[in-house]
Amino acid sequence: MARDNKLRTVVMHDPELDDINTIIRYLLYSNQFDTEGLIYSSSRFHWKGDGKGTLFYGESEHSNYGIGPIANWRWDEGSRFFEDAVDIYATVYRNLSVHAEGYPHPDELRSRIYEGSVEFPGDISKDSPGSNHIKKLILDDKPGTLYLLTGAGQSTIGRALLSIEEEYKNSSQWKNVYEKISKKIIIQSFGDQDGIYASYIGLNWPNIEFREVATNIWGYFARKVVQPEDRHYLSAAWTRENISKVGPFGEHYIVWGDGKQLHKNDIADFFGFSRVTVEQLKELGYTPWYGGVEEPGSWISEGDTSMYMNLLDNGLDAHVDASYGGWGGRNGKDIDPNGVSSKDYSSSRWFGAAQRDFAARLQWTVTPEYKDANHHPVVEVVGLDSMTVKPGQTITLKAIVKDPDGNHLTGRWWQYEEAGTYPRKVELLSVEEPNTEVERTYPFDIPAPGSPEIDKLIKSEIEVTSQFTVPTDAVNGQTLHFILEAWDNGEKPLTSYKRVVLTVSR
Ligand SMILES: [Ca+2]
Ligand SMILES: [Ca+2]
């Protein structure tokens, strides 16, 4: 079921081609967030310059190419990728709102687009509209965590914090302001793309939680880490059928060989070419750092998508702690199916489910009637009286899973061993087979979401029950994580979860 309070987010991007894809996916989940800002931000890979031709003598990606002082790097003056994405969102907003509640009005999103610190990489010397907006959000009195999500550098955040420091540091309010901010914000970022975390934020605001969310599965090198059974989600055939062909967002999504190029003659962006060899790209003056050429129409990258995937309201509750893990990965290694402890597996293990979810949501954008698209199974855990357990105690994990579309359902409980602090596997016994007998399926139409009849019309339902005995060697305070995972068999199949975290108390 949906969260009571939406998580507050600020989303920052630079004009890398994969940020465009990341924004598309984010907007499909924008009903789950209170999006407080969409803010253009620089990184060492993209910076706009000051518009006056002032040369930058420092280091950025351009230095790797031996290019001397320049006035901007891979950022066109007229680039308005946030507005472009929201304009497309506006054309599908009505359809999306048929399938799930809470999508923000396009005008609301538009009003929250700001230009942040875009001029030079890692420059926190002056305010920008975006840094002023973040400063205001950081200082406001709204409850809850403010998630600052950056797919670029951190100079816009850094400037906001520095500006607060300059204003309050010598005042009597400083201690309170400092403590409030340290508790209130969490920064999630793919790396430190302009060095501002290392040079300013981490040093001066060490108590602000920083979650490094770099993954390979969401990036250019996804093919190196994808699970064999999920490989087709990167293919041209799947991508064309489930993404590119599906409405205006699908058309906007950037894939290999589509002829698009974000910045004219960008030597690092050769992905739009089709049927060329690496040698030919070199002859054309490009730097084909990817090391190969993929099939036209296939996956390129969504590098920064991991910055919000753990905040999704999919039942995994991955936002609660960086060690929990979810579609954006985990701050630790998971044991892969070959028995290898792998940082990549903690994110790649979810990739198939996340891609199917993306496909289903894209389908919503082109489906005006609720009954013509798939919707998520709804999971409820029942009968757990306490979240603390004693060694030797037998615990029953029981979930009721319903599907609003009457789809056939399958579910299972599993222990997310790596996420818990109890260091071993427990034996989970299925109390009854995930159960064809209990299932009821009545096919009929369903009213729009929010309608009071909707609960009565739930059309299929299963119970999934497992039992285990709390290990006798478990010690006080150790945790055991269990995940209920449930799938429907809709045309674009969907997965829902529920996480149960049990704490041992002797
Ligand atoms: Ca980026
Ligand atoms: Ca369904």
TrEMBL record:
It holds the Pfam family Sde182_NH-like. Residues 394-504 form the Cellulose-binding Sde182 C-terminal domain. Residues 8-330 form the Cellulose-binding Sde182 nucleoside hydrolase-like domain. It comes from the Bacteria. GO terms for molecular function: hydrolase activity, hydrolyzing N-glycosyl compounds. This is DUF1593 domain-containing protein.
